[in-house]
Design a protein that fits this description.
Length: 266
């Protein structure tokens, strides 16, 4: 059993450190990461999308809200770019039914404080983040370039529109975090078959290989050639208010893991 740190922030000091500095794992190990699942326990995660977190910094010019023609509203420019997210989704809109959801996702998320704490000031700068989970059939860096293309469109739209000052807006799109998709674990790998048997015996349901948009430490293991899977029985409450785990699920999952450990052919 391996307990690791900083899974939410890249695993530099957790699994990645162990992979780089210790030989804890063998290529024929049965590796299960209990970090994702469905309420019925049927999902055996064998593939993950690319993760691309983008930071968008907009520079305009601050002024009083009653005289917008003296400034350039960075928040408004950022909102215009956010409004183009649907175009981004359509551009990378192919589907792969093994994944849940079966398409790439691009979502505005974090919005740091932009330095304006009163209502009557137009902000001269703004920052927001995009969380992109991209299907493996796309090059995730193509998403970055398309977002930059949309940013250039907004810059042009904000120039000489007659409402704000004739001052250019500059939008910088940069990578905050990037993890290209790892090679999937084959659906016929021994760990998948063993898990299916354990799930069937403990929960009475049939496990099925699937892919997710969330990122887990299994991706780092797969990049090193390990046939890792992600599995547990859980309600889909990740990153939601009142996130919880059911004790009955923990007990049942422990029984499934015991089944893996007790199989005579390992």
């Amino acid at each position: 059993m391996v307990f690791v740190s900083d899974e939410e922030t890249g695993s530099k000091y957790g699994v990645q450190y162990l992979l780089d500095n210790h030989k804890l794992f063998a290529l024929d190990d049965i590796i299960v990461v209990p970090d994702a699942g469905l309420p019925d326990g049927t999902m055996i995660e064998v593939a993950e999308k690319s993760i691309l977190w983008l930071r968008v910094d907009t520079q305009g010019q601050q002024c009083h809200a009653s005289t917008p023609y003296l400034g350039k509203n960075a928040l408004f420019a950022a909102a215009k770019l956010m409004a183009k997210v649907e175009e981004m989704r359509q551009k990378f809109g192919q589907k792969d039914v093994i994944f849940d959801p079966p398409h790439s996702t691009i979502e505005p998320t974090k919005k740091p404080f932009n330095g304006i704490d009163n209502v009557n000031t137009i902000p001269g700068k703004d920052t927001f983040f995009l969380d992109c989970r991209i299907l493996p059939n796309y090059n995730s860096l193509d998403v970055l370039e398309f977002v930059k293309e949309k940013a250039r469109e907004v810059e042009k739209e904000m120039v000489g529109n007659g409402y704000y000052a004739n001052i250019p807006v500059k939008i910088e799109v940069s990578i905050f975090h990037h993890e290209p998709s790892a090679p999937p674990t084959p659906a016929d790998a021994p760990v998948v078959g063993a898990l299916k048997e354990g799930i069937r015996k403990v929960y009475g349901v049939e496990g099925k290989p699937m892919g997710i948009g969330g990122g887990t430490v299994a991706a780092l293991l797969r990049r090193k050639g390990f046939k890792a899977v992600v599995w547990s029985k859980m309600d889909e409450m990740a990153h939601q208010p009142n996130e919880y785990a059911k004790i009955d699920n923990l007990i049942g999952d422990a029984q499934v893991f015991a089944h893996l450990c007790l199989k005579s052919d390992w």
